[in-house]
Amino acid sequence: MRKFLIMLLVLPLAGCGVEVAGTAATVAAAKAKEAEEAKKTMDQFKQNLDAAQQAQQQANEAADREAGK
């Protein structure tokens, strides 16, 4: 009887550990997805910045050509 009572007390505690591990895995997956989206956003920002710099450089070169005439 004593072993049965101990098992009844231990089982709910074991369940809590599983729940915590599941929650940690869910949080880790969410953070990984967030990091991936942040990287995509940063890559897109870099592409836009490069395009803007190239456009500005072309505008400067065109202005220099016009000033040289």
Automatic annotation (TrEMBL):
At the top level, the lineage of the source is Bacteria
Q: Where is the signal peptide?
A: 1-21
Keywords attached to this entry: Signal
Composition bias of kind Low complexity appears in 47-61
Instruction: Note down the stretches annotated as region Disordered.
Output: 37-69
Its protein name is: Lipoprotein
Q: What is the protein's species of origin?
A: Sulfurimicrobium lacus
UniProt lineage: Bacteria, Pseudomonadati, Pseudomonadota, Betaproteobacteria, Nitrosomonadales
